[in-house]
Design brief:
The structure holds two protein chains of two kinds. Chain A is mainly α. Chain A is built from 13 helices and no strands. In chain A, helix 3 runs antiparallel to helix 9 and helix 9 packs antiparallel against helix 12. Chain A is globular and about 75 Å long. By secondary structure, chain B is α+β, with helices and mostly antiparallel strands. Chain B is about 25% helix and about 35% strand. Chain B has nine helices and 18 strands. Chain B has a six-stranded mixed sheet, with helices on both faces. In chain B, strands 13-17-14-15-16 form a five-stranded antiparallel sheet, with no helix packed on it. In chain B, strands 2-1-4-5 form a four-stranded antiparallel sheet, with helices on one face. The chains are: A mainly alpha, B alpha+beta. At the A-B interface, helix 8 and helix 9 of A face strand 6, helix 2 and helix 4 of B. Bound molecules: adenosine-5'-triphosphate and magnesium ion.
Chain lengths: ~290, ~325
């Protein structure tokens, strides 16, 4: 028992090192001055970060990325939340169809999807190929599985169908029951899937590059472009970028954790299923990131 | 004059009929129980009355109004769900006040206060549902339904998630509140004991049909068929031919005979106290003895079939396993099915 614990610790330790060394290396490189033939840099400097944060292009790219993400995630919440709610509560026999549709994006590689999208939208009635709008569309689809899973499992966890039944019997209209008893109980679940989607889109490159590329320079494309210039600068960008994603993930984890500590459930069984659901949530999220 | 009328209601899901031509009526203030095995359609009937489920055929009337096609919020029906369905984001007070606020009623505060008083939850007003025990959650659910002064109160196995002791005390309390408010109530359970203690009237359901209705004692003492006999009182049900053979008499006619376990008596073989006028005798031996609290239950094996015999658990006198005995069957207690 004890030896197997040490064994586990060693494995985890190795894994953490394997994951962290490149990151630490990149970080050191981003603050290194001269670093040729020593193990650690000979001198340190913040010049690269200063250069990065003084570059107008960086801010523009960041702003564009933010715009894309806010638009696609916002659109997704506004469209998917009522859709999933209505289907689970009132048309449960269509649930299978919705689920299949929501999972479809998993089956299409971004490259294939991008080529198809460019073909379809470069002529015909909707000519949006090369504009940010096509990217927003593609991103909407990319995050569909997360939004779907997140929202649906939140609804399941609180047993939304029964809450709506109870509220309606007490005289609430359908909309009132959604607003007063369903929405407040799933808001933190929605926040988690939203933030996960944001983190995912932040690191999305294939669609961004293929669909708009240099015409609408996002942070990803900016990064790719800078890869060819100074290595130090690139490292600084990577670290900045990584910190932002880390921050986002941290918020997600914190929210999830807070929910688990203070569950909205009313009995033990519910808490258990809540944990399970949350666990599934994370799983799908991780799968999606691969 | 009936207050609730359910008239020939039929409902099915894809390929299965769940409610099959159900008709029943209730008087105002009556406490009625739907009793039946799991899956026989009790919840479906309740949900149909509440309007949470539509019916395929038939009418539902409350207080003279046809409510068959009204939405749940227009029916003035209150319901307590098996898992309570309290709103997790609201305190006890807000849960109970919810319906009043939706209906924009005046004096919300005092009405809710009265209700909290009635269900004995003073001091818990600001607690959230997950901070309450099962029994307390149950009371909140009840208060939330009652504060709306519904015409009919529907209770779907409201006590089944609680342990035996709390259950007993909540049964009493529920009954007290129901009488106090004189509210017409339909209660669902699959526990016959619970049905017996609480109800004015019991509707026994089987496979989507009401098979018998009546007062608890009517149902208990004169079941109309084998299903009711077995489900309600652990009746000994015996095929008539077999019975003729056992008692060496063809006095009774019919298909089957049902006898309650507690009307049977046991005497040792040889001890001849058999009153031929009043009783039949069946020879057998004790196969098993079991005890459920104050009741001793003998399983007596005879040459054709086994009989259950219940005794109150007195001190002393007890038959050992394997003892040869004679069962005394009082003639007038035999029910022909
Ligand atoms: N939404 C549904 N779709 C299809 N079949 C259903 C649905 N709801 C219930 N049924 C079926 O209807 C039958 C009756 O269900 P119901 O819930 O009324 O049973 P019940 O008597 O309340 O049982 P229990 O005591 O277990 O609660 C069951 O056979 C069930 O499978
Ligand atoms: Mg049920």
């Amino acid at each position: 028992m004890k030896s197997s614990l040490t064994f586990h610790k060693v494995i985890v330790g190795l894994l953490v090192m394997y994951l962290l060394i490149p990151l630490v290396g990149t970080f050191l490189f981003s603050i290194a001055g001269k670093w040729d033939h020593t193990i650690l840099p000979e001198s340190y400097t913040m010049d690269w970060y200063i250069e990065l944060f003084q570059d107008e292009r960086f801010y523009d790219a960041f702003r564009r990325t933010l715009f894309l993400i806010v638009m696609s995630v916002g659109l997704s919440v506004v469209i998917m939340l009522p859709t999933i709610f209505i289907i689970t509560v009132y048309f449960s026999k269509w649930e299978g169809l919705l689920q299949a549709a929501a999972m479809l994006p998993y089956g299409i590689p971004p490259i294939v999807g991008a080529v198809g999208l460019i073909k379809v939208y470069s002529d015909g009635p909707i000519q949006i190929a090369g504009t940010p709008w096509i990217l927003i569309g593609a991103y909407f689809i990319t995050i569909l599985p997360f939004m779907y899973q997140g929202i649906r499992s939140s609804l399941r966890t609180i047993n939304a169908v029964q809450l709506v039944d109870a509220a309606e019997l007490l005289g609430a209209t359908k909309f009132q029951s959604f607003r007063t008893v369903v929405f407040p109980n799933i808001i933190s679940g929605i926040l988690v899937s939203t933030l996960l989607s944001v983190a995912l889109l932040f690191s999305e490159f294939a669609f961004a590059n293929l669909l708009v590329g240099g015409r609408f320079e996002t942070i990803q494309i900016y990064l790719a472009d800078k890869l060819n210039s100074s290595g130090h600068l690139t490292s600084a960008i990577v670290i900045t970028y990584y910190s932002m994603i880390l921050l986002l993930t941290g918020i997600v984890l914190k929210l999830t954790f807070r929910n688990e500590k203070n569950p909205v459930g009313s009995n033990k069984k519910r808490i258990l299923s809540f944990f399970k659901k949350k666990y599934c949530n994370k799983n799908t999220a991780i799968e999606g990131e691969k | 004059m009936s207050y609730v009328t359910i008239n020939q209601v039929t409902k099915g899901y894809e390929n299965q009929v769940v409610l099959n031509d159900i008709s029943l009526t209730l008087k105002k203030g009556e406490f009625a129980t739907l009793l039946g095995q799991s899956g026989c359609g009790k919840s479906t009937l309740l949900r149909s009355i509440a309007g949470l489920e539509g019916v395929d055929v038939g009418r539902i009337l409350i207080d003279g109004h046809d409510i068959t096609n009204l939405s749940p919020r227009q029916r003035e029906v209150g319901m307590v769900f098996q898992s309570y369905a309290l709103f997790p984001n609201m305190t006890v007070f807000d849960n109970i006040a919810y319906g009043l606020k939706m209906k924009k009623v005046k004096n919300v505060k005092s009405k809710v206060k009265n209700m909290i008083d009635m269900v004995d939850l003073i001091g818990k007003e600001e607690s959230f549902p997950h901070q309450l025990s099962g029994g307390q959650q149950q009371r909140v659910a009840l208060a939330r339904a009652l504060v709306m002064e519904p015409k009919v109160l529907l209770l779907d196995e409201p006590l089944s998630a609680l342990d035996a002791k709390i259950r007993k005390s909540l049964q009493k309390e529920l009954k007290r509140i129901q009488k106090e408010l004189d509210i017409t109530t339909i209660f669902v359970t699959h526990d016959q004991e619970e049905a017996m203690t609480m109800s004015d009237r019991i509707f026994v359901m089987n496979k989507g049909k009401v098979v018998q209705s009546g007062s608890p004692s009517e149902i208990y003492t004169s079941p109309v068929n084998t299903f009711v006999a077995k489900f309600i009182g652990n009746y000994n049900v015996c095929n008539m031919e077999v019975f003729h053979k056992l008692v060496r008499s063809t006095e009774l006619k019919g298909n089957e005979v049902a006898i309650r376990p507690e009307v049977l008596q046991l005497v040792s073989v040889g001890e001849d106290s058999l009153d031929i006028q009043e009783n039949w005798g069946i020879k057998g031996f004790i196969k098993d003895v079991s005890m459920t609290g104050n009741v001793l239950r003998y399983e007596v094996e005879t040459e054709e079939s086994a009989f259950l015999v219940d005794y109150l658990h007195h001190r002393g006198e007890m038959f050992e396993q394997g003892a040869r005995v004679q069962i005394l069957v009082p003639k007038k207690e035999c029910i022909i099915l």
